[in-house]
Protein: FAD-dependent oxidoreductase
Amino acid sequence: RVRVVIVGAGMAGVQTAVALREQGFPGSVTLIGAEPHQPYDRPPLSKAVLLGKAESSAFGVDFETLGVQLRLGLEATGVRPASRELDTAEGAVPYDVLVLATGAEPVRLPGAEGVPGVHLLRTLDDAERLRPVLARQHDIVVVGAGWIGAEFATAAREAGCSVTVVEAADRPLVGVLPAEVAAPMTAWYADSGASLRTHARVERVEPGAVVLDDGSRLPAGAVVVGIGARPATSWLAGSGIELGAHREVVADDHLRTSLPDVYAVGDCASFPSGRYGERLLVHHWDNALQGPRTVAANIVGETPAPYDPVPYFWSEQFGRFVQYAGHHGAADALLWRGDPAGPSWSVCWLREGRLVAVLAVGRPRDLAQGRRLIESGTRMDPALLTDPSRPLKTA
Ligand code: FAD
Structure:
């Protein structure tokens, strides 16, 4: 019996186990996860779970019925490919096929570690620690105006906290969206009653305060750090598995790593996108849902099509539903649909007349239609495209 061992019991790991059984894999499946909790979904952590509107976000998967052995609260500390063994605190775990699905871990703020009242938001434990902080309606300083920072600020405002978001760059979502698209989002912070301070570098964090490099001192009953996430791959050092520029596992277009019978999927891995002509490292939920099907198909011995998704994600912030599909890295035109000062609008990116990415704020239909148009590589008419009253699919 072939033994598949999956490391990481987040979305990508769990979906790999599910997809293996769906695709009829008859061998043994072991899912190893460092966290002690029943495997759970992360997006609700910065939304319903944080606000106490949902107790848990555990996946509705019956591992026993699926014949998946769960080993929770167990961290893999190394891989020895020559003997096909994984090292853990409970001894060696042998495998025939290994799937790396260890996700990402938040980047820490230098010097802030160990300071009382400083939080990250990645795990259920983090969210549970933050819930009473919201309930106490502290003054909260959020470091970083990225997706997580914005979602946390939204929840904290809803809970009645006073919120200051400090961002080193000149705008939110720097590195993710171009300046002209991020510009209208700046106003969302103020509209919700949060204060956004750009060009604000944290000099140090003290108990009860964040000190900026211009000398200003922000009182902080709690500090939430949201400055990005990195692939959780330090445990692979010395294994011979190739890592990339962001310390991610380098996978091929079938999500195979540089070692035979070792796959990588989800937030921990990058893959070459044929569609976009570059390597993508995607830190979003949909990638952790789709990738596992390709991994499972390889393992059951099929020859899957290359993994080449149109990346997709959503974010809920300041009362708005923000969705993005595609990848605008190599776009040559940016077109607006609707008024960015209004409640709903979209942005389309074209390359040589074809849609390559769409950002939709409160326009889920644009997103759904845009995603299909990106997939099919349909040529668009820019003059029609910018008319928000017209469906995107006929534009
Ligand atoms: P993870 O979810 O990180 O799971 C990896 C698991 O592996 C972890 O449980 C970890 O403990 C475990 N692990 C790590 N190292 C080891 C080891 N050595 N041994 C054993 N186990 C190990 N995406 C969206 O598209 N939309 C959203 O609205 C959205 N909201 C989010 C909100 C929050 C608060 C967070 C943190 C993320 C959000 N995301 C969202 C991103 C999305 O949740 C991730 O892309 C997704 O969880 C990736 O799944 P994964 O399984 O690859 O990694």
